Amino acid sequence: MDAPMGATAATMTDEERTRAHRGYMMYDWAKSGFETSVVVAVLPAWFAYLFIAANGQEMSFLGMTQTADGIFALVTASAALLVAIISPGLGVIADRIP
Question: What does each C-alpha distance from 87 to 42, 62, 63, 80, 98 come to in angstroms?
């Protein structure tokens, strides 16, 4: 029943292909839930804990007094802006590479 490791979709039976699709869907479902939990619940709390341990409750950044939540939001927004600026150019490069 199990397809060999080097099997491609063309050489797999319908049952093997269905089983492989189900396996990938379950993996993707579990991975997405784990990543969402870490990014939404664990990472901000851990960042705030490390920030407060290193800098106290507040710190001056770019001439403004910021808390851990403010710094986390600023870093997240900066990363999103960087991705929005760089992604179109990287997409063009990726489309041209065979």
Answer: 27, 27, 30, 10, 18
pLDDT per residue over 61-71, tens digit each? Answer: 778 888 888 88
Pairing status of strand 64-67 against strand 58-61 = antiparallel
Measure Cα distances from 58 to 43, 69, 96 in Å: 19, 10, 47
pTM here?
Answer: 0.59
43-55 and 68-96 are packed helices; what angle lies between their axes, rounded to 10 degrees?
120
Q: Where are the domains of the chain?
A: 1-56, 57-98
Strand pairing partners for 64? 61
